[in-house]
Batch of 2 targets.
Target 1
Amino acid sequence: MMRRTTTLALAMMLVIGATQLSAHDNFRIIGTLMKHESSKIDVKKREGNTVTIMLDKQTQITRDKKKVAASELRAGQSLVVDAYGDTEDDSLAIEIRIVPPIQAGRN
Amino acid sequence: MAVQASQAASTPQHVPSARTLVKASVVALAVAGLLLVTIVFPAEYGIDPLGTGEALGLSALSGVGAVAESIPPPQGTKLAPVPEGPYALYPAEYKYDAREFTLGPYEYVEFKYHLEQGATMLFSWAADGDVMHDFHGDPDGAPSSAAQSYDTRVRRRADGTFSAPFSGIHGWYWENPGGETITVRMTTAGFYASAHEFRFDGTRYPRTVRALDTIPVTDEEKETP
């Protein structure tokens, strides 16, 4: 009985674990920085929704093609974020570019 | 009921020995470690020391060394050229594709066509502003690191012919480098079997390529006896 239960539990763990694995994609998120914390940023896209993107030590932050410190990130800036993950809201920023202000909506 | 409860309470519980607990913990840790190395690492991080990720197709999930754009080669007859001296014959007619699209500030898009090795394509595209452009190809079944660039530079237009150096998906990446919207118009014709569009937001779409009989012949072009 114990052996059967253990086998079942292990099988369930494998099934649940497998559903957590999904393909990673590249995303470009373009919008306005709403909030910056040490390990994440909230960016409001031109479409109106806000996505949270994780940062790590490898995340490069640039302005005019020059590296800048994370402390340069300020709410209200226009950003172009190249991220990698399962979805936009579950992604890690590879590069964040601070760009001149972008008009809301498409030009 | 009271008797049963009393019996249950008085039945001695089997308490596993410390030795059994340690043994179970070691086994659990070993199984967890094995799953970590054989499944989680290859699928999530592309780390595949035992080759299980490659064997189970999990490496593609990581995106590291993933098969280029995850587009399988099209099924059916391969549109491969059969050289006949100065010309080549193909097992089917060529296809046609035309598109006009806009790139908002900092947006990018890719159009890729599947061509067999040696198959040819004609192309013309023009943009109303400078675009960062990369004409490149990804071999069938190869990791994305195997992609080859044919032409990478800022351009406004290009007109040319292309002969595929290998079987795979070939096409253009266009990126708007600035804050103004740019319109791009492109036309291709060639012996491609399928086409795909990849957008900056991670979405991808198969594109329907047009057969020649979808191109209308005007009344002036119809020959009358």
Note: The mean pLDDT of chain A is 84.
Target 2
Amino acid sequence: MALDKYGIAKRIAKELQDGYYVNLGIGIPTLVSNYVPEGMTIMLQSENGMLGMGPYPKEADIDADLINAGKETVTILPGGAFFDSVESFGMIRAGKINLTVLGAMEVAQNGDIASWKIPGKMVKGMGGAMDLVASAKNIIVAMQHTNREGESKLLPQCNLPLTGVGCVTKIVTDLGVFEVKDNAFHLLERAPGVSIEEIQSKTAGKLFVPDFVPEMEA
Amino acid sequence: MNKVFKDASSAIFDIESGATLMLGGFGLNGIPENLISALVQKGASQLTCISNNAGVDDFGIGLMLKTKQVKKMISSYVGENKEFERQLLNGELEVDLIPQGTLATRIAMAGLGIPAFYTPAGYGTEVAEGKEIREFNGKMYLMEHALHADFSLVKAWKGDTLGNLVFRKSTRNFSVAMAKAGNITIAEVEELVPAGEIDPDDIHVPGIYVHRIFQGKDYEKRIEKRTVQL
């Protein structure tokens, strides 16, 4: 069965390592913070100016002066720090963030990503996504494998305006885990019960399938 | 030296139509509420507004969009404002969308006296069109210019009569860099104290950057997304 958004987040959480500084985008990526393995210390960065972002506050602890990059009320954990946007993107640009997880509308087999604009339709802006993907060394995309029309989001090349070029290293979708290298999507794992045939039929870009593809651990 | 003004409308006495403004804040977090209200009241129009976001329909910069005072927005993300999207798609509003880190750093460079810098953000995208591209150590970068403004409008938690500013929690965001980038910087604070009361170690923006300061009132501090632990 294909993964739901929680399943995707749970699988991405397995990529975390103790001591990682991590930036999680809005949507499915944010859910990854719910699955940090016991005993592991992860520092979440929120690009509006915070390290050590904590969970949502209890009603009584809501503070209008404390939000995350998604403009949600949050808390800060012991050992956290506040800073300004210049410093926030300085640490991103300087490669201090160990892992960046973000959503996408399209990913190309060469690692290009499109995530910010649908010409004539959506004009929201790129926010911090272009800065993040241009500088992060370790970028995981969390997304559905196909769009609402059922078309593949893993493509030979992106059709929508790009957010960044050749930057995505890994993709976790509802159907599987893919490494992006050598101009192809390399299937590493498939979601429980999802066949290789289904993944092949829903992947428009070049797909490399090794002889043995393990099922994701539940 | 007197930097202290009695309120927002007296502090913006010389902001005329056609001015370029920087407005601090991230979403509705730490925005200069009093100064925005005063601008709406004054009615200065044809403004170019540099701000990470454009507020929501009925708060923040959204209030100035409703009154059609804004000619151009320079922002990184404007997705929370339907009126903005409507004006943009109708061609009533110009917009320049800039990657958030590039926007922050362009503003910071103005305050540092550096005319331009190189950043990898946007390389290979439409953001790079028309810009100088240069390779450093095998990686491609775009040249981006410092971003200046006639007036910077920021809101801090506490300030003193010499213009020293202290921010609270996540409200530093764009406001620290903007305070340093304005030809004239106007700060509104929740609490205005006599010079000497703030520990010099605690100051986020030294008063040299701040030309006018006043104690704001009736802060609403609207929350965009009220999320709580279940």
Note: Residues 5-13 of chain A form the longest helix (9 residues).
